[in-house]
Amino acid sequence: MWSEEELKYFEQLILKRREEILRNLRHFEEHTLFSSVRDQTGDIADVPDQGTDTLEQEKTVQIATKEGRYLYHLNEALERIRNGTFGICRKCGGRISKERLEAVPHATLCIKCKMEEEEGSRRR
Ligand SMILES: [Zn+2]
Fold first, then answer.
1. Distance from the alpha carbon of residue 95 to the mean position of ligand 1, in angstroms
2. Is this prediction's pTM over 0.70?
3. Which of 24, 29, 49, 52 would suit a FRET pair with 6, their CA atoms being 20 to 30 Å apart?
């Protein structure tokens, strides 16, 4: 399994990306959310239209954005570092390569299983 240094390394990598995204989200809020997005629903059309509470709506928009989803995945990855399941393929239980994790730190499938999964979804 991973050494302590390797886990620390990935934790730092994820925290750094998380910070970048948080900055982007703040930028998004300031420049988009409070001006144009409310009227141009094209991008967030799949957000369920429920409740009029503005804070709830803003949260929904955050989660609906690409950054918001990425943030969620990074948080999950941090959780996995803490509970010792980080970097382990959820399908075959094998170790995900370090190169892959450096590119996609929140990956939960090894390359092989990922390719099989994509193959499968294409056939469906
Ligand atoms: Zn696998």
1. 7
2. no
3. 24
